Amino acid sequence: MMNQQSPTTHFRWLLAAPHRAMFFGGAVQLLLAMLPWAAEMLARLIGVALPWAWPPLWWHAMLAVYGIFPFFVFGFLLTAMPRWQGYGDLPREVFRRPWYLLLLGWGLIYLSMLLPVLRVSGVALVFVAWAWLVIVLAPIAFRAGNGRLHAVPAWVATVLGLTGWALWGLFAVTGDGGWARAGIELGIWCFLLPVFFTVSHRMIPFFSSAVLPDYDAFRPPWALFMMLGAALGHGALVLLGAAAMTWVIDLPAAALAFFLTIRWGLVRSFAVQLLAMLHLGFMWLGIALALFGVQSFAAWQGVTVLGLAPLHALVIGMFTVVAMSMVSRVTLGHSGQALSADAMTWRLCWAVQGVAVLRIAAELWPAAHGLLLVLTVACWLGVFGMWARRYVLIYLRPRVDGKAG
């Protein structure tokens, strides 16, 4: 007869390691954050106006940028950064309280859709939790050693992300939409892209060299600094009202991203599906930056094209696929399971990219825009519902090899 574990036991395992708690929160957010947008899309399709206190597009952007990915970012950095810097695994006391605050803060933010008076309190709790985690990571990031090459930029990006969230807080207090727009741009270009590129620059060559024979782990610092500069430069130009000039940065950055995609061995990575998932996610960076470059160049010529297609190529194509790939890998490895993508995980990786294509198509096919948006949201919820079912339960159980963590 199988031994049934109590809810208390499951919760204890959830808090056994930072990646468990944070990835669990991120997996839940992948679904919760999209439900309000799903309601808005259905309402538009049938011609009903929902009573939003904030513009629904801003709600959607806020939930996508700050609601989902920070859980995955902190789960990964709290697990990997100590190893980069020669620390041992972090005790649960370090992350437990900020994790509680994150959950409480986001709970209040969701409730504020019905009770707006809760909005500022929710934003403030998330800010405190984020700042707490930034403080936890600071001495690790700046410890002397080779790991600082990636640890410091990743940590600085979390500080910039905190700054972006503070700007969103100013919007919550004042209602000035300028703060919301600045917070969104800062979150994408100064927080998420620097973190995702920094992690990719370190981990893609590392993972590839571990499983591909005769692999040259190409990881030049100049590529890291160039892409970080491009991300910050793009964000700065947009914030200064010069979005029509970002092509000067975007197109060279796209060329660099395509170069790294090829140099890191996208084609060879298909020999190991779990590795190929990570390479495929990175491939979308070059596509997204090229689309941004074309859009900006066209704007410079006085032509409006592509709509939100470049943004969703970046957020769904790169950020989401890389997050799915990295989280799947860390979850399997830190639960004592084989580092191998099963058939479902591999199919879901392709399905997420299908979601990205659908969302891009919605911008390029105006006649089917509304229908494609509904289909995109439905596919997102279906994909991540299946992915969560596959991985979330792992966080509530002990490692299969009997080790701690």
UniProtKB/TrEMBL annotation:
Pfam families: NnrS
Domain of life, per lineage: Bacteria
Transmembrane annotation, as ranges: 21-38, 58-78, 99-118, 124-142, 154-173, 179-200, 221-241, 278-299, 311-332, 368-388
Xref: InterPro entries: NnrS
Keywords, alphabetical: Membrane, Transmembrane, Transmembrane helix
Name the record gives this protein: NnrS family protein
Protein's organism: Denitromonas halophila
